[in-house]
Design a protein that fits this description.
Structural class: alpha/beta
Largest sheet: 6 strands, mixed
Distance between the termini: 38 Å
Radius of gyration: 23 Å
Shape: elongated
Order of helices and strands: HHHEEEHHEHEEEEHEEEHEHHHEEHHH
Helix content: 40-55%
Number of helices: 14
Length: 392
């Protein structure tokens, strides 16, 4: 039987449905890249500010982050809102849905905060696609008082206990010496050849990768003129693995590949980490199970539990959060005509009727999951004790 509080939060979301969908569409219409999401950040704050949430801007020194707080109960719940887009293809990861559902969850929980002894914290977390906003906020203490954190992500299917891969990114800069490619090639040190050698080494390494390890990269600078031996080139590579330990092993082997290009050609090279590493998601079992029941209640069919662990969907800085506190990052399915995230067709689907349904149902599912946590004495005590141990 639904409790009064669980009914209340569902009703609250449905009353604000049009506002939430308008927010989702507005963010989608003006995509902004990592650390430059000024309009999206302001839009995401607006509805909770009207409701009386206390807003702190630029936590952790991040201009496009915020922390919005309502209530004063001992159980502090974080809700993450993402709103950065992808270069060229906009909201092909559906972060407009994430932001709107986060706001919907926060507004709903504000209705029962006093009754359930909650402090509701909506976190505007920039730069998930590139930059690791949550990692920077976590390291700066923005999450320190939070007992559990929830959010959702759209995708092509429903997954209650969303998983992800650990990730790190690096740029590799090779420096050689220019020379005329025909008149005096022997005077040049070819930085483009260093890129070629490196990519061949990486291609050969793929044969010996451990399960779950992968890498993918692009050439961001390959030279400027065909008749000039290039003195400067640059690669950008992303490395992923099933967990952080496996990722470190892969990074070590990739370091050798990067060095191979320099050794073979006589170039100098510098490897630079471009963002904090992302840890793998560690979804809380009880919260995930409760969320799964909510999905089923809405007539959704989340993939079986025994399949979830083998279906990581990309990488996210929410993984770092779930490594230190109970949290969930479910995938809420939308109809995308067979497209997956990071495809232009998924960007178009992120403002479809199905996406709007995901905003509404996603907000309700997350809010009711938090209500269930607050109303279950043993689970409430568990997450509070976990937070006390972190703080000690």
């Amino acid at each position: 039987m639904p409790t009064a509080a669980s009914t209340c939060v569902e009703d609250a979301v449905r009353r604000r449905r049009s506002d939430l969908i308008e927010l989702s569409h507005s963010i989608h219409a003006e995509p902004e890249l990592a650390f430059a999401e000024h309009r999206s950040c302001a839009k995401t704050q607006a509805l909770v500010a009207e409701r009386g949430f206390e807003i702190t801007t630029a936590p952790a020194g991040l201009d496009t982050a915020f922390r919005a707080v309502f209530g004063s109960g001992p159980l502090v719940i974080g809700i993450c809102a993402e709103y950065d887009a992808l270069p060229g293809i906009g909201h092909a990861c559906g972060h407009n849905i994430i932001a709107a559902s986060g706001v919907g969850t926060a507004l709903a929980l504000a209705e029962v905060a006093d009754e359930l002894g909650l402090t509701v914290v909506l976190l505007g977390t920039p730069a998930e696609e590139a930059g690791g906003g949550k990692v920077l906020m976590l390291d700066a203490g923005v999450f320190d008082d939070i007992a559990a954190t929830v959010m959702l992500h759209p995708g092509p299917i429903d997954i209650a206990a969303g998983r992800s891969l650990a990730l790190s990114e690096a740029t590799v800069r090779y420096t050689g010496r220019e020379s005329h490619a025909a008149v005096a090639p022997y005077l040049g040190i070819n930085a483009a050849d260093a890129v070629t050698v490196t990519q061949v080494a990486i291609g050969l390494l793929r044969q010996q990768l451990a399960p779950g390890q992968m890498m993918h990269g692009i050439v961001t600078d390959g030279g400027q003129a065909a008749n000039v031996i290039p003195a400067r080139t640059e690669l950008r590579y992303t490395m992923r693995a099933t967990n952080s330990e496996s990722l470190r092993e892969l990074e070590s082997r990739m370091t050798g590949c990067f060095a191979a290009g320099a050794v073979a050609t006589g170039c100098e090279h510098v490897v630079t980490e471009t963002a904090p590493a992302y840890a793998e998601l560690l979804p809380d079992a009880w919260l995930s199970s409760t969320l799964r029941a909510e999905m089923v209640r809405f007539g959704r069919t989340p993939i079986p539990e025994d399949v979830e662990a083998s279906m990581p969907l990309g990488s996210t800085d929410m993984g770092n959060v779930t490594q230190v506190m109970p949290g969930i990052h479910p995938i809420v399915g939308i109809e995308a005509g067979g497209a997956s995230i990071h495809q232009p067709a998924f960007a178009a689907a992120a403002v479809s009727d199905s996406a709007d349904t995901a905003v509404t149902e996603g907000s309700i599912m997350l809010a009711r999951t938090v209500v269930a946590l607050a109303e279950n004495p043993s689970e409430r005590d568990r997450v509070l004790e976990h937070q006390r141990r972190r703080a000690s």
